[in-house]
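Quick question, first post here. What does this chain look like in 3D?
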Amino acid sequence: MEPWFIILLVLIMGGVISFIFLNMFSAKDVSMGKGKIMKIVLVILSIIALVVGIDFYAQSKSAIHQILAFMSFVISAITFSGAGIIAAIDSLKEEALNTVQQTDEPSEEF
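> Answer (accepted):
Ran it through. Tokens below.
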């Protein structure tokens, strides 16, 4: 198989898996929530892209193969940083919800 075809196949499979996971589970049904599921999917895609990039670079015979390998490394870095962004947003959301819940509780002073 051609290396560009493998990259395209991995990206398409990742998009399909993400779409299925996000539509199959809702935050009400599963305690994980959509953000954590998406974070897991992005980390898995990052690892797959990293392994594919290492394989392409190890088997490179010309400059185009090295370019495809580094494109896989970039895809891996982007998906991993996306997982980090989702984790940061989830922690901010939980912190904001905890703050709102603490301020909504009635005080005993009145």
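The two ends are 73 Å apart (CA to CA).
The chain has a mean pLDDT of 76.
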